[in-house]
Amino acid sequence: MMPFTYERAQSPAAAAAAAARSPSAKFIAGGTNLLDLMKLRIERPGHLIDVNGLALDRIEPTAEGGLRIGALVRNTDLAADARVRRDYAVLARALLAGASGQLRNKATTAGNLLQRTRCPYFYDTDQPCNKREPGSGCGALAGYSRQLAVVGGSEACIATHPSDMAVGMRALDAVVETVRPDGATSEIPIEGFHRLPGETPQIETALQPGELITAVTLPPPVGGTHVYRKVRDRASYAFALVSVAAVIQRDGSGAVALGGVAPKPWRRAEADAALPQGAQASAAALMQGARPTEDNAFKLKLVERTLGAVLAEARS
Amino acid sequence: MRFDTPATTNPIDRLRIIGQPVDRIDGPLKVRGAAPYAYEQHEAVPNQAYGWVVGAGIAKGRITRMDLDAAHAAPGVIAILTTENAGPLDKGKRNAAPLLGGPEITHYHQAIALVIAESFEQARDAAQRVQVAYAVEEGAFDLAEAKAEGVGPSKDSPDSKIGDFAKAFAEAPVQLDATYTTPDQTHAMMEPHASLAAWDGESLEVWTSNQMVAWAHQDLAKTLRLKKEQVRIRSPYVGGGFGAKLFLRADILLAALGARLAGRPVKVALQRPLIANNTTHRAATIQRIRLGAGRDGRLTAIAHESWSGNVEGGEEENAIQQTRLLYAGANRLTGTRLAHLDLAEGNAMRAPGEAPGLLALEVAMDEMAEKLGIDPVEFRILNDTQEDPEKPDRPFSQRQLIECLRQGAAGFGWDQRSAQPGTRREGRWLVGLGMAVGFRNNLVDKSGARVRLDGEGIVTVETDMTDIGTGSYTIIAQTAAEMMGVALDRVVVRLGDSSFPASAGSGGQWGANTSTAGVYAACVKLREQVAQALGLNASDADFADGMVRSGERSIPLADAARDGALTAEDTIEFGDLQKRFQQSTFAGHFVEVAVDAATAEVRVRRMLAVCAAGRILNPKSARSQVIGAMTMGLGAALMEELAVDTRQGFFVNHDLAGYEVPVHADVPRQEVIFLDEVDPTSSPMKAKGVGELGLCGVGAAVANAIHNATGIRVRDYPITLDKLLDRLPG
């Protein structure tokens, strides 16, 4: 581990300002991902800004009738919140499908959004990885890619975003609230929060240097049936091969987002629009333009099957 | 003590303590965290420094330049070990690739340096600053490719041919010719390989985590060119091994070399991401099985050929050995083919050979039963044999396979199984039942122990036997307590020290039977000394309840040591009973699975194993062994696979996030039944082993249950959902 300096931020704006002053700074909250990566020298922050004391750990109603989730709300607490369970059940279920109880106790809302891929080539520092070392190449593309992206990837990177929570939020049209180093606040719809890799897979979000997530807001409840279905190689404690977050209304309309298939939580308006026509049509829209590898081509079929099962469950 | 005639009645047969489901005597220590594992030997020696292993970043080639300057300059660094300063090294008898590589690299993550620092974090930090440049060479990493290029039987292991297989197979009215594959697997034990080494002049002491103290002792001394007397190895607690810790590995050697270089004790734990490629693994296999049978269901032709790969000096994965013995059939052909691969060394993992071999054979048997239209249980019973099919004058010492199958079928509700696959549906789930035979041989090797009786009546047992989580401490204590007629709490067991008599060690499921037989032998001697000291006749003395009785006389055992402790040492040595009798253990494995009709996720719902394995020394620890092994079999069937990157030549998913083994949510209700059995040909204990039996065949039972549930036959393990998805109804 490289030496680093450490400070406890006094306010969100001060934290953002401090981060802007130090180009190699990182915010730390739960640390469930960052510390692992620091031990492997994949993350090498020269300065850590501890945001745990910033009182961003509340869940409050918004004026519009939605819910504002503080950036530091722990995954366990968010999943257990009665309002979330009642009005945004897809989010509660997505959270509980992720990680383990111990990790969820530490992991935060903002940290979950910002966690990095679990691509094995990203983790093995003897292997090329454009995300870890830009320009070094991608070991996964022609290597072992069973877990990796089938859609939204590029020649530079086919890593997936590992979060379950973010997939639930994507289906709910969440908005990420931030504060910038100059103290200005900003709202980033989750749709545009995570970036596709293109030629710069090391840039993963729309956040500007120093910008700090303060909250995630959910719009007013839309009702419907909420389903989160995560398919993986063992029954628990594994990343998704495919996951489906769906909010389905009585008339068959709704919203669907996928995890495990793309560099970001994956949703397409055409797929939502096709939901009344059934899983095949909606899955086809979601997988439009997919470029799977030999290892992970099965995910296309699995998306369709899982979505079919989810729609059947929602209807029953 | 020489054991060359079947055992007659002896004090073990009293079964006052042996055969009882007593708790582990080391349990409280472990639960309290008071049993120091190798990396936690903080009190053993002062001034311990920390080593961090640098693994090669290529699979094959040469180091052209290693820049250590930045690492040397890093805070806390004491020394950096490489082949440049390691001094001359030999290679252990049981090692294929060198444990310290450089400049030549023979596999990925081969150790090329050990960075030693004042703290763990400093060692890691400095190690990450080591810069290495390589000249990469082409390597062979793909078993299927190597097979396609043609590999024949090796001179060391020629094919076994009985009768005329080709003719019998050609003439058989019902035939099966199928190819199965099993992947590379890693042991994934909880405790990594870890060692602490300290030198005192020319003498070396090592605290480690190793299953076979005598082997590690011998190979460490050889590698360092020391006399065995200069080396002492202790391995009192082992946090799982499964074969990964049978041998001298890099942790021990680098700790020893590092400590010599640093001039102070050094400890090393192999980093988890290093273990899969740095150490040994279970090698992948490609297996072709051909079965021919008459319409009556009797096998007339059996062929099993298996391909595996290994580094120079490595051996084949012997997946065919159980096929030579399991079923009757007059015409037989079995053989292994070994290809050269530049992956890490393949070597023993729990039930080596049997585990992958039965994954194939027992699915082939299921397929054959289906072709014949015979129930899979009945098909196996029909082809049972009570003698070695290759040597008909050599009987099995005990073979209760039919009883295992009958009792298992009855207990599991096998009659509920639909013979027509894919016909039982419960909501989203397709449900099926499967079974397979578990079959593992009983191996024996000489095993020694020392037993001491003191004036307080305490019996202390010392042997270099290890307890790798299996329960050795407990069954050894039970043996000594039974033999000396004392309560369990009057026995002290000290294990895993090369200064103790050499045992057979923990491996091949021989540990329980052989190590307790060694203790038995030492106790027989001690009983003679006690009788002599008390003026009694050893042959009719009865040792019970802390007393020794002979005729009218009854004397406290402790009195025998009133004038000083009595010590006896002996080694059990085995004659030719293994040759005269085929000694084996058997199981009937029964499994119910449910397969999601849409997503193909497989969930095992219940498992039953009925085992016949000689005398069960402790039903509680034996059951733990079997349910753990059944869990491992579930993993082998459904998820375990080291993914090979065939361009770069390494196992990619080399940590516990990427290499999936079952979690609690995967493990269903498990039941284990042990049949009453004693095997007097095995040892005076009349026991065999269960630690590997529990794994043998389980995965095939899962595979067969998946077929029964879905009608889909998958012949490539693990049976992940992508192999089922296309063929499911949805």
TrEMBL record, chain A:
Please list the residue ranges annotated as the FAD-binding PCMH-type domain.
1-223
Name the SMART domains for this protein: CO_deh_flav_C
The record, for Pfam families, names:
FAD_binding_5 (PF00941)
- InterPro entries membership: CO_DH_flav_C, Diverse_Substr_Oxidored, FAD-bd_PCMH, Mopterin_DH_FAD-bd
Please state what the protein is called: FAD binding domain-containing protein
Q: What is the lineage of its organism?
A: Bacteria, Pseudomonadati, Pseudomonadota, Alphaproteobacteria, Acetobacterales
Automatic annotation (TrEMBL), chain B:
EC number(s) for this protein? 1.2.99.6
Q: What range(s) does the Aldehyde oxidase/xanthine dehydrogenase a/b hammerhead domain occupy?
A: 32-138
One Pfam match, given by its short name, reads: MoCoBD_2
Principal EC category: oxidoreductase
Query: What Gene Ontology molecular function terms does this protein carry?
Result: carboxylate reductase activity
Key words of the record? Oxidoreductase
Note the superkingdom of the native organism.
Bacteria
Q: What is this protein called?
A: Aldehyde oxidoreductase molybdenum-binding subunit PaoC
The primary gene name is: paoC
